[in-house]
Specification:
Helices cover about 5% and strands about 35% of the residues. It is mainly beta and about 280 residues long. The longest helix has 11 residues.
């Protein structure tokens, strides 16, 4: 009789009373050198020689999003399924396919949207990148936003976690075609470039980002590659290597860059990430 009464009372309670979630929206902005990113804009004083550049791509993947409570507890954010969010992975897309970004796509996404357990939060944490379990599939059959071959190296290397492409306005005809910041996993073992690795890559290169004192209702996370490339010459490139820095260990152009993404590189220790800041 007692159990029956308890069940009847439970049925009368709102279904969400015990396990309520709250909406979470985290806004991002893209800049180059402190100026809002646009595909038709020119950005000056970039890199070690103060180059003027045009941005031709500006996209990155984010995963494992969590809100941080005052006591340090992290509660995961369940990202709402959409064209830009799938199974905990989101694509932030700041290029609109116009002007210098002709190889991009028109839709934009500057926000993470989802839910977290009801609570009072003082910070946010996430990874820039795609988890290993989702990083080496077939982009031609993957659901959006993991179906962009322009954000994919190959099955062995997986996705470009970050793709920010910059082209100097005074680029020499015989010089590099641009300075491209591409972050992704390296030293992944598989039978070939079209074979997915069975075990995690030696250098996953997932950027762990967290901010205390972040209020998503009032503040924005600003992504700006200028501090990351401050010691790189936008007009030059080490011969026989990819233009800019594409995370590869044989590329000296990455020596001053990867550590500013908060990642170790060869025997260079990781520094504090300088790509994303709170404003």
């Amino acid at each position: 009789m007692k159990l029956a009464l308890q069940a009847a009372l439970a049925a009368l309670l709102p279904a969400t009373a015990a396990f309520a979630d709250q909406d979470v929206k985290i806004n991002f902005a893209a800049e180059i050198g402190g100026h809002p990113f646009a595909c038709d804009a020119t950005f000056t004083d970039i890199g070690s020689t103060g180059a003027a550049v045009r941005g031709t791509d500006f996209r990155l993947y984010v995963s494992d999003v969590a809100m941080i409570a005052a006591d340090g507890t992290r509660n995961p954010v369940t990202l709402t399924e959409s064209a830009f969010q799938h199974d905990g992975v989101a694509l932030l897309d700041f290029e609109d396919g116009s002007a210098a970004c002709a190889n991009g796509t028109a839709p934009l996404n500057t926000q993470l949207a989802g839910t977290a357990a009801e609570g009072s939060y003082t910070g946010v944490a996430f990874n820039v990148g795609v988890p290993f379990e989702m990083n080496h599939g077939d982009p031609t059959t993957a659901p959006t936003p993991l179906n962009l071959t322009s954000m994919f190296w190959n099955w062995r290397g997986g996705y470009k976690f970050v793709r920010i492409d910059m082209v100097p306005t005074d680029k020499a005809a015989s010089g590099p075609k641009g300075w491209f910041l591409h972050l992704g996993s390296t030293m992944c073992k598989s039978g070939g470039k079209t074979d997915a690795p069975a075990a995690p890559c030696k250098n996953p290169n997932l950027m762990a980002v967290s901010f205390d004192g972040f209020d998503p209702a009032k503040q924005t996370l600003v992504i700006d590659p200028a501090p990351v490339v401050a010691e790189a010459d936008m007009r030059s490139n080490t011969p026989q290597t990819s233009p800019g820095c594409m995370s590869f260990l044989n590329d000296p152009d990455c020596d001053t860059v990867m550590t500013k993404l908060g990642l170790p590189f060869k025997d260079i220790a990781a520094g504090e990430q300088q790509l994303i800041a709170v404003r």
